[in-house]
Amino acid sequence: MDALDGTAPGPGTDLVELRNTRDAFASGSRAPHGTDVHLRVSGARSRGIAPADNELSRAAAAVETTGGAAPDTVIGGSGAR
User: Cα(57)–Cα(80) distance, rounded to whole angstroms?
Assistant: First the structure.
């Protein structure tokens, strides 16, 4: 995913959700004002999610792992600059 930009999806809704996803790279995205969670990763089959160079200062949370996704599923932290 490259250069995602837009409006916030609304309270309680993630901007991006990756479910049971492997080897994904997310870069150059910008969290709009009012974003709760920029990137939620879920599912036990998720692996190798690599966010990098994202502007996430307007998100309440940059990245969350849930729904069976291991904490080490996301490589290199939030990818926030």
Answer: 8
Q: Residue 78 pLDDT > 90, yes or no?
A: no
Q: Please, what is the Cα angle at 34 between 55 and 14, to 5 degrees? A: 80
Angle, CA 35 vertex, CA 51 and CA 72 arms, to 5° = 30
The domain segmentation of the chain, as residue ranges, is: 16-73
- Least Cα distance to 77 among 56, 1, 58, 68 occurs for 56
Three-state SS at 71: helix
Q: What pTM was estimated for this model as a whole? A: 0.86
Contacts of 72 (CB under 8 A, 6+ apart): none
Q: Rounded CA gap, 76 and 30, in Å? A: 18
Amino acid occupying residue 24: A
